[in-house]
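Agenda item 2: acetamide complex prediction
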Amino acid sequence: MKIALAQFRPEFGESDRNIERLLRLCKENPADLYILPELAYTGYQFVSQEEVHALADSVHSRRIEAFRNAAKELDACLIFGFPELAGAVIYNSALAVLSDGREYLYRKTHLFYKETLYFSPGDTGFPVFEYRGARIGMAICFDWFFPESFRTLALKGADIIAHCSNLVLPYCQTADFAAAVQNRVFIATVNRVGAEQREDEQLAFTGESVLVSPKGEYLLRGPIEDEAVLVAEIDPEAARNKSINPYNEVFKMRRPGMYTLQ
Ligand code: ACM
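Presented output:
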């Protein structure tokens, strides 16, 4: 499976222009699976509920339709983050749109910093779906800080964790090594680049999107400041062997009964 990590710098609030440019970048780099950042086309640093509401899209909106059309045109699966308007509620969501018309929605479980002011905590749990022989799991940014997130996806059978991100802390790209090795999965952390100055606060995003193998090899690592579409061929089957030696099959030897607080 050819996997593309689309590291991008959206211009805050310029959704249509960002989508056009983002999809053009994807079309220049053929792949089976494209992973895009969290809140891929709106920007990140909202300053009011009204602003989030104005920029949020329902899954039925024409903007989301543009991604569906791109999945068909590219004959691929696209996973991208967006602010999801769902009735009166707004989630920080990621949607996977597949060339065969299927789609899978994930709503961010662990909200970071001021996201807690503007978004509702996700209610979907962590989805895993199959595409072209690969089992793909979905997570968003700060979810990584909670080891249960990637563990749950791995226990549900994910070979690849599509981790749409807007990282501002310096840890995740390094921590992915441990998460990939412990869970014996591929992790694709796809980050954005650039900085946003809104009102009196600036947030700088750390770039450096990474693809890590189940053995902890960094197969891809993006630049810190520039946009880039990084492509690698992976064999998803490499994530299915959970043995680290003939005596230790790390998923079978888990002991949940010993992990209680009593
Ligand atoms: C984050 O969850 N965007 C850090």
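Discussion summary: The first strand starts at residue 2 and ends at 7.
Owner for follow-up: CH.
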